[in-house]
Write a structure and sequence with these properties.
Blueprint (H helix, E strand, L loop, with lengths): L2 E6 L14 E2 L2 E2 H9 L7 E7 L5 H9 L3 E5 L4 H11 L4 E6 L7 H14 L3 E3 L11 E4 H10 L3 H5 L3 H5 L6 E3 L18 H13 L7 H11 L1
Helix pairs in contact: 3-5
């Protein structure tokens, strides 16, 4: 069983163009995502998946300079990009992350992977309780392959997980329960707008030492509200 982590990244955000390489407290957003994954205890193949559009050459070059694996696929068919990337790197279980989430909770990611593999789920997620941008999801290659084969609607191709959520009766789906101290589903810790970016910069600057934990991020946002 080969665990893979595919980080979805592109430069063409309409609301915050070029955000994945935009600086947050001395490192680009994508650098924060990859830096967090260094804390993951279990071995995993980490790949940045971007598109073949010319504007994403910058992501490819950034990854090359840092010896980070980079896969390039379809710009609009993100489901196909994930499927081809997972096949190319021989992944059996795939964690999906996006390059606009610098505060992924690695402790909960470890628990998510363990739950997924222990219970043999097809698709497992940690959404709905954690702050927006902190959770993650994982699926088997078989489930991804079925979604790729049967998911024909435009939103299925654009969003990797939506065939799972549209057709839950076809998949064995699990959801991670998280500690009460980390429950804050309305708090935005993703970076999709200028306001999000300013919040992320402030939180990164206020972190005591190392990486900002979810409880600390919730406390800091609550105290500044």
């Amino acid at each position: 069983m080969t665990l893979g982590i595919i980080i979805q990244a592109r430069m063409g955000s309409t609301r915050l163009p070029g955000k994945v390489l935009r600086d947050i407290s001395g490192r680009p957003l994508l650098g924060h995502v990859l830096g967090r994954l260094q804390m993951l205890k279990r071995p995993a193949r980490i790949v940045v998946a971007t598109s073949s559009a010319v504007e994403n050459d910058a992501i490819d070059a950034w990854c090359l300079e840092r010896s980070v694996s980079c896969f390039r696929g379809d710009e609009t068919d993100v489901l196909d990009r994930y499927f081809q990337c997972a096949k190319s790197f021989g992944m059996s279980d795939i964690v999906r992350l996006t390059a606009d989430n610098p505060f992924t909770d690695i402790e909960e990611l470890e628990r998510l992977i363990d739950l997924h593999q222990r219970q043999r789920y097809d698709y497992t997620h940690a959404f709905g309780q954690l702050p927006i941008g902190v959770g993650a999801e994982i699926f088997t290659l078989e489930a991804l392959s079925r979604s790729h084969r049967e998911g024909k609607l435009p939103h299925h191709r654009e969003h990797v997980n939506e065939y799972f959520t549209d057709q839950p009766e076809l998949f064995n789906i699990g959801q991670l329960d998280v500690p009460p101290t980390k429950i804050s589903p309305s708090l935005r810790l993703t970076v999709d707008t200028e306001e999000d970016w300013k919040r992320a910069c402030a939180l990164a600057a206020l972190a005591n030492e190392g990486w900002l934990g979810t409880e600390e991020a919730i406390r800091l946002c609550s105290s500044s509200a």
